Structures are given as structure tokens and as C-alpha cells.
Model the fold of this input.
Amino acid sequence: MDPMNPMNPMNAAPGPRVRPGMSRLLGAAALALAVSLAAAPVAHALEVGERAVEFTLTDLNGKAVKLSSLRGKVVLIDFWATWCKPCKEELPLLEKLHQKLKGKGLVILAININKKKEDATRFAAANKLTMTVPFDGSSDIVSKYKPPKMPSSYLVDKKGIVRKLNAGFYGKSDLDKLEKVILDLLAKP
Done:
């Protein structure tokens, strides 16, 4: 390299000098930051046996839906989106389950996570969904539950505890298995 070239790193101006002892102080500060970040609680996916995370959302009809107001009922919380093919296959079957068990105390909350409410409204109307369809376009609630797949359903007992997580949808047999657990929970006081 040309020693007279200003782009030659050998000709660069020296950087700021670190005072003696300052490098140890900076090292200690970096270590303290790393330890505090490692000790910080890590958000995790909601699991079976945990209390369902409280929420209030507005459904597609503009009505407020508050999870805690459903205590005493068995609640199936299902996260779905119109861009999710298995979700679109599952929802008509969830609607049938809703029709079959709503009189026995089952409430299905089919929480839509689309960014545009119109997409969810259009799908719900086309599929004649009568179950409650809350809208979570800002992803506030889905980010708290952290479903492992789309769709994912959380079955919540009468006391507000998650009793089953159904991750994904692989056909009607998924809902048949889920219905058995629902019936068991409905039979309990």
C-alpha cells in the first residue's frame, strides 16, 4: 500500500485512549449486563396446567369478550387466520362442535389473528360461523399464548386452567379426541 495514501490504515489517526483501569470497569459492566439478561424471565408458551392468560377482545360484531367473564364454563380458545389452510379446514368443524355442545356449557372463542378485520369477517360470513370470533389484529393476545402451530386450541376448564393444548389440525379425528376431553370437563363441577 502507498504510505502516503490517506486510506491506508497505517496513516489513520489514533483512536481514543482508554484510561488505565477503565477497561476493567467496562468489562465488569459488560459482565453485569450479560448476567442480568440471562437472569431475566423468559416469556414462554402457555402450557397445560397453567392459568389461561386473561384478555378482553372485541368480536367481529363489535361486542367485548372478556375471558374471566366465562368462568364456570368450559372454553375452547382457538387461534386461526384466513391465510392458514388447516385453520380454514378446522373452523367449519369447530362450528359443528359449537352447535352440538353450546347448550351444555361449552364456549368456543375462535380468535382471528389477521391484520385486516375484513378478511376475518368475510370468512366468518361465508362459513356461517355463529361461535364467537374475537379479533386480535394487533397480535397482543396471540403473543401471550404463543401457540406452537396454526391453528392451535387451548381447552380451558371451568376454573380457568388450561387442560389441553391441541397444536395444529390434522383432520376430524383431532376434534373427536378433543370432544372427549371437553365432555369430561363439562361433566365436572
Summary: Strands lie at 56-59, 64-66, 74-80, 106-112, 134-135, 152-156, 162-167. Residues 22-39 form the longest helix (18 residues).
